[in-house]
Amino acid sequence: MQHENSIPQGLDGQEQVLQFVREHLLRDTRVDPEDRAVFTGRLTTHVHRLVTSLYAVYGSGPGFWDTVAQAVLTAWEAFVARPRDLKDLDRRREDAQPWFTSRDAVGGVCYVDRFGGDLAGLRERIPYFRELGLTYLHLMPLYEAPEGNSDGGYAVSSYRHVDPALGTMAELAEFAALLRAQGIALVLDFVFNHTSNEHAWARAAAAGDPFYERFYWIYPDRTMPDEFELTAREIFPDDHPGVFTRVDSTEVGRTLSPLHPDPRWVWTTFHRFQWDLNYSNPHVFHAMAAEMLFLANHGAQVLRLDAVAFIWKQLGTSCESQPQVHDLLRAFNVVMALAAPAVEFKSEAIVHPDEVIRYIQPDQCALSYNPLQMALTWDALATRDVRMLSAALAERHATPEGTAWVNYVRSHDDIGWTFSDEDAARLGIAGHDHRRFLNAFYTGRHPGSFAHGVAFQDNPRTGDCRICGTTASLLGLETEPGPAVDRILLAYSLAMSTGGLPLIYLGDEVGQLNDAHWQENPDNAHDARWVHRPLYSEADYERRHDLFSVQGRIFGGIRGMITVRRSTPEFDGTTLIPFDTHNDHVLGYQRPGGHSVVLCLANVSDWSQFVTGETLSGFLPTATSLGDDERVDLRAGILLEAHGFRWLRVLPAV
Ligand code: GLC
Ligand code: GLC
Fold first, then answer.
1. Both 363 and 449 in a single domain?
2. Domain containing 605: what range?
3. Best of 306, 374, 411, 532 to mutate for ligand 1, by most ligand atoms within 8 A of CB?
4. In this structure, is residue 7 part of a structural domain?
5. Which Pfam families does the entry link to (predicted)?
6. Residue 593's Cα: distance from chain center in Å?
7. Is 357 left (phi over 0), alpha (psi -120 to 50) or beta?
């Protein structure tokens, strides 16, 4: 949307923008004065943040104040269109405590087609989401996407259309409202690093439209691509080497002679059909802000910012987590705060922990995946040694006020070993060798391994390799069901109790195994992540109430943890205090409440482990075990079964 009057340049630009916008708003008869006052109030609060964040990215270009005004007007258009019930939600959220740090918050994630067939089928599963106790439901990308391989929907052809096989946008909005009525927040992906090559913008670019060519990183020859590829990381080397792909303009019917094929190259960090957007062009920022707000207005309460680290490219760098990424996030955050403040961002930055933490900030993303805790949970289960995990909880768990980790055991993606080599070195562990060990362990190649995982993007040139497999299969449910059930519950107990929003990959709670048939679908056969994206298993879910079945023990265990978590005030908030168990097999941490503390202990080894009375002498002798309310005398020490965990309410001795 283009506005007619343009803003004069000048030092007092901010005042002029405000003036211009206020006048524009006053002329807009679609909105009543009360709503207008709400918006202008928010604008006054946030305009400075908007100006500074946009200035950091676009300040040196021409028409900077136009860029600011355009961002505000994009927010205004979305505010005008925002349904009343969502505006009410905005108001309630604006002066409430964050819901996602509460002990009630529990998330689930699934594919619409794999879990429910389509949106109509998924509606039938809402009672199940309630039974499990979810308050957050992430639907994997459900937008229009290319036929065949679409990277599991992460190649979006239109942000405004649901894949017709799954339903319509109207149905999605209705689904969101149904969830909302049940206290469940809908979480959607905002895939904003790239579009598919079939998106209208990409097609226009391929056809040679100069306006849309500048939406992407398109170069006429290999000069710039070669320069960039000196330093940018390969993410999917199985798909294509480097980060650029030849533009195929024949797809859009552009006639070029076969002797002179399209010479252009386009940036594609992930697959060849995923074209990276060019945020150095402010039009891209505006266009994507409008798409983002469209999703917010259809009822998304959390947007998962996909592949966030990659959105800014800078010659001579890794082109990941550049400072401008954070400025752009701040700018998007303001646009959301103006139009739809109930919506939170969740960052998907699966990178070095020093980088991950930079995204989880109140003015960027209130939520972030916690890939470090995820990876080190797997590390502890393989090594039966908690030192790396324990150090990470002590040093890297704290996040700013008003933010929270999303703690997960696994996701739809591979498991990558994104721990810090420096942290490992301090414990005498060599990062590179240790990753090799973990890859060997989880692919079942290491002697004595219980895991049934599959290697992903094994890159002999760089030595990089990641792991695929469902939680149950990676923990050996096929071959050693007894210990595997305990390990599954142990892994989930950590996600449930360290502080933050626990996220269940649906299917895990009934012990779903690897999909034995994943390679039969030719569209997916090259991408091992499909091994851990099995279809909804009627049989597994039916057994969930049978406490003698494996499914029932896992479901009952996870359901039980959710109940205990919900009734334990100490699990509110995100504060974690380390606790040294003096035993490398037993992880310890404390969750402080008003007067009491919950002490969490978790034994990752295959044998019973003891935490001595002396180790526990900082607490009063009498403790209560959560769940069964059993009294425990700490002076006798605590014995933990193999792969056992305990949550104890204790009182500090002083
Ligand atoms: C994220 C998604 C992953 C996808 C990639 C590209 O990492 O989680 O599934 O392949 O982005 O969109
Ligand atoms: C992500 C990560 C990478 C991950 C991939 C999806 O953004 O950077 O480690 O494996 O994309 O599979």
1. yes
2. 570-650
3. 306
4. no
5. Alpha-amylase
6. 28
7. alpha
Q: What is the pLDDT of residue 167?
A: 98
Q: In Å, how far from its chain's centre is CA 445? A: 30
Taking the alpha carbons of 72, 77, 80, 81 in that order, is the dihedral positive or negative? negative
CATH number at residue 536: 3.20.20.80
User: From the alpha carbon of 320, which atom of ligand 2 is closest?
Assistant: 8
Give the model's pLDDT for residue 8. Answer: 47
Confidence at residue 14, expressed as pLDDT on a 0 to 100 scale: 84
CA–CA separation, 547 vs 539, rounded Å?
A: 15
Instruction: Put residue 13 in one of left, alpha, beta given phi > 0 → left and psi -120 to 50 → alpha.
Output: alpha
**Among 241, 276, 311, where does a domain finish?**
276
Q: Counting atoms of ligand 1 from 1, which one is nearest the CA of 152?
A: 9
Q: How confident is the model at residue 410 (pLDDT cuts 50, 70, 90)?
A: very high
Of 494, 463, 487, the C-alpha closest to 370 is 494
The total number of residues written for the chain in this structure: 654
Interatomic CA distance for residues 362 and 101, integer angstroms: 13
Residue located nearest, by CA, to atom 9 of ligand 2: 350
Tell me which residue has tokens 């014995």: 639
Give the tens place of pLDDT for each residue, 73-101: 999 999 999 999 999 999 999 889 999 99
Same domain, 343 and 463: yes
What distance in Å separates the CA atoms of residue 488 and residue 194, rounded to the nearest whole number?
Answer: 35
Token duo for residue 593: 């409440």
pLDDT in tens, 8-38: 455 478 888 889 899 999 999 999 999 999 9
Does residue 3 carry a pLDDT above 70?
no
Ligand 1 binding site (Cβ under 6 Å of any ligand atom): 151-152, 154, 191, 270, 306-307, 348, 412-413
Backbone phi and psi for residue 294, each to the nearest 5 degrees, phi listed first = -60, -45
User: Do residues 405 and 423 share a domain?
Assistant: yes
Record the tokens describing residue 623, joined without a space.
Answer: 């403790």
Catalytic residues: 306, 348
As a whole number of Å, the CA-based R_g of the chain is: 25
**65 and 89 share one domain:** yes
The 10 Å Cβ neighbour count of residue 575 is 14
Do the Cβ atoms of 248 and 262 come closer than 8 Å? yes
Please give the number of the atom of ligand 2 that sits closest to the Cα of 466: 10
Task: Count up the domains in the chain and report the number.
Answer: 4
Closest C-alpha to ligand 1, atom 9: 413
Question: Would you list the DSSP string of 387-408?
Answer: HHHHHHHHHH----TT-EEEEE
Phi, psi of 423 (to 5 degrees): -60, -45
- DSSP 3-state assignment of 166? coil
Domain boundary among 243, 276, 309: 276
